[in-house]
Design brief:
Oligomer: single chain
CATH topology of the largest domain: Naphthalene 1,2-dioxygenase Alpha Subunit, Chain A, domain 1
Number of helices: 12
Number of domains: 2
CATH architecture of the largest domain: Alpha-Beta Complex
Shape: globular
Helix content: 25-40%
Number of strands: 21
Strand content: 25-35%
Bound molecules: FE2/S2 (inorganic) cluster, fe (ii) ion
Structural class: alpha+beta
Distance between the termini: 38 Å
Radius of gyration: 23 Å
CATH superfamily of the largest domain: Naphthalene 1,2-dioxygenase Alpha Subunit, Chain A, domain 1
Length: 414
């Protein structure tokens, strides 16, 4: 991130902290709860946002080396993502050209050849049909036209993008725009190593899952015994980039830049996190040497249910530091969220702790609220909820998705 941008963000956060104020959008909005329930809205979202929209499926570290692969079933298209022997990223329909069986079953692994479990047709990780058993019995098949069905796939600045339709339009410059594309590139996401994934399926609309990442108002309340201990909240810098946005909140030590030349200010020190919302369903928390990617998906058959996939990524240096600490006995294993927030246990945060802190807070606190919100929405008697002046990321997200779906705009309170 440009130093000028870092300084601008940190200055605004310092102002808010000093004045004891949060961001102020100057407007509140009413949000109809039907958007979390209505099957027609859900059907349109599924069609427009998930089946016919570019999808960020992971970071380059998910396909670490030639032969790496992963399978994805989150957005209606069974997907096989591979890195071929030349290091090229591909996305295929995970379906055999003989009679359609899924050729790769595991979530991730290493394979150069995928053999279909049904009749053992085999495909290379570049998608070529390479072998048909008993071919003389089966009859002639032109192998050159019966490779796996390839989907548009682009690896760009450490991000893996696909389009779920073979003829889909995938233009990352157009999708992200500037300055967002360059800013994301500045985090060197391509150097990070995959460090684990947690899947959470709960009874809340996918937008309620997303809403939990839309303000810092709740940190010291809902998360008072967990995340709130290390992130004060109640301050927020927001910048919109078309349909996407970035939001940043202060770290407890932001005050240390007072009197320090601006050229030395470091957003990774002064912020608790830098969060990018990428339309429609991605939260990317981009750090200096670790990142977290949250992908949120509706259940296409139930507007009140969703699945979040939370991926952790670390730099090799961070992994090596943990291994060294483990070797010299200074590493403390974290076994629960409580100990994760205990300063004694955080002296050397283990990688497992980083993941534990984040995922347990989401599952047991944020999404629990989301399930309660979903119940109220489904009841139908609570017609709308209110987004405050201190919750502008929610304004932006909900305005955007409504606009794309051709729904009525959010109504201002007052
Ligand atoms: S369905 Fe795959 S080999 Fe027959
Ligand atoms: Fe939260």
């Amino acid at each position: 991130m440009h130093q000028d941008t870092q300084v601008e963000i940190l200055k605004e956060l310092m102002r808010q902290v000093n004045e004891g104020k949060n961001i102020d959008a100057g407007v509140q909005y009413k949000m109809p709860t039907s958007a979390y329930v209505c099957p027609d809205v859900a059907a349109k979202e599924w069609e427009l946002f998930f089946q016919n929209h570019p999808q960020l499926i992971g970071l380059s570290g998910d396909l670490a080396e030639p032969g790496s692969f992963m399978t994805i079933d989150d957005f209606g298209t069974p997907l096989l993502a591979t890195r071929d022997r030349d290091g090229v990223f591909h996305a295929f329909l995970n379906a055999c050209r003989h009679r359609g069986v899924r050729i790769a079953q595991e979530e991730r692994g290493r394979k150069n050849v995928f053999t279909c479990p049904f009749h053992s047709w085999s495909y290379s990780n570049a998608g070529d049909l390479v072998a048909i058993p008993d071919e003389d019995h089966f009859g002639p098949i032109d192998k050159s036209c019966n490779g796996l069905i390839e989907l548009p796939a682009v690896e760009r600045d450490g991000l893996l993008w696909v389009h779920p339709k073979p003829d889909g339009h995938l233009d990352i410059d157009e999708l992200l725009g500037q300055p967002l594309a360059d800013e994301l590139a500045s985090f060197n996401l391509g150097n990070l190593v995959h460090g684990g994934v947690k899947t959470i399926t709960m009874d809340l609309n996918w937008k309620l899952a997303n809403d939990t990442f839309g303000e810092t108002y709740h940190f010291a309340k809902l998360h008072k015994n967990t995340l709130g201990k290390i992130i004060p909240g109640n301050n927020l810098h927001l910048e919109e980039f078309g349909r996407h946005h970035r939001f940043v909140t202060a770290s407890p030590v932001i005050g240390q830049f007072k009197g320090v030349p601006e050229s030395e200010w470091d957003i990774h020190v002064g912020s608790a996190f830098i969060l990018y919302y990428l339309f429609p369903n991605i939260t990317l928390i981009a750090g200096k040497d670790n990142s977290i990617l949250v992908k949120m998906y509706p259940d296409p058959n139930n507007s009140g249910r969703s699945t979040s996939q939370i991926f952790a990524y670390y730099s090799q240096e961070m992994i090596d530091a943990e291994a060294a600490a483990r070797a010299d006995g200074t590493l403390k294993e974290v076994v629960s969220a409580d100990t994760a927030y205990d300063p004694e246990y955080r002296s050397i945060p283990t990688l497992a702790a980083t993941m534990e802190i984040f995922t347990s807070t989401i599952e047991q606190e944020d999404y629990l609220m989301g399930e309660l919100q979903q119940k109220s929405a489904q009841n139908g008697l609570l017609e709308y909820v209110t987004f405050g002046r201190n919750e502008p990321p929610l304004h932006h997200f909900h305005k955007t998705f409504r606009e794309v779906l051709g729904m009525s705009p959010l109504e201002e309170v007052g």
